[in-house]
Prior knowledge:
Number of strands of chain B: 12
Helix content of chain B: under 10%
Oligomer: heterodimer
Radius of gyration of chain B: 14 Å
Low-confidence stretches of chain B: none
Structural class of chain B: mainly beta
Largest sheet of chain B: 6 strands, mixed
Largest sheet of chain A: 7 strands, mixed
Mean pLDDT of chain A: 93
Number of helices of chain A: 0
Distance between the termini of chain B: 41 Å
Order of helices and strands of chain B: EEEEEEEEEEEE
Number of helices of chain B: 0
Strand content of chain B: over 45%
Structural class of chain A: mainly beta
Order of helices and strands of chain A: EEEEEEEEEEE
Mean pLDDT of chain B: 92
Strand content of chain A: over 45%
Shape of chain B: globular
Number of strands of chain A: 11
Amino acid sequence: xAGVTQTPKFQVLKTxxxxxxxxxxxxxxxxxxxxxxxxGMGLRLIYYSASEGTTDKGEVPNGYNVSRxxxxxxxxxxxxxxxxxxxxxxxxxxxxxxxxxxYFGPGTRLLVL
Amino acid sequence: xxxxSQHNHHVILSEAASLELGCNYSYGGTVxxxxxxxxxxxxxxxxxxxxxxxxxxxxxxxxxxxxxxxKFSFNLRKPSVQWSDTAEYFCAVxxxxxxxxxVFGTGTRLLVSx
Lengths: 113, 114
């Protein structure tokens, strides 16, 4: 099993450009998440999807949209990138029980100029 | 809403030294507690977790953590660190009964010198 995979690994954008970060998991998990990691701020939840067909805002959703394409895939879209969105983005997945561990992908490092 | 504080932002230790990283959370209800580790260039991995029962939890690689409810703390410990423990450590909490919305602390960067 590959676990949680993310593409691309690294991306440079100019302000105003759009892009989609892809995430897929092969663990048959119901729930998926997108976080951003910034120095000195830990990980902050952007959006999550409790199950296929549902998405909800997390702590820092502004400037992002998500799509839960199917049970395996959960994408994050930046419609008009801003320098403040320079960050490392992590996707995670978990079974639905609150006591279960979240499994993280390798991350996408995004630089917005 | 929950919040998590990790007061040590950077820790430098020599090999074989003992480690204790502080974690305090703020929440009035029952919580689940986690420590995650991020080795250089890698993704987050679970070190250990506490849900209920024995407040002293043992994790991988010789790490342990103690949940002290009265202090709202979940400090991470290791008796003797190794160079390979160099990493960033994150404490996280979620409210029991809520959908898995983990709240992370800001992280502690540990550097172990050989």
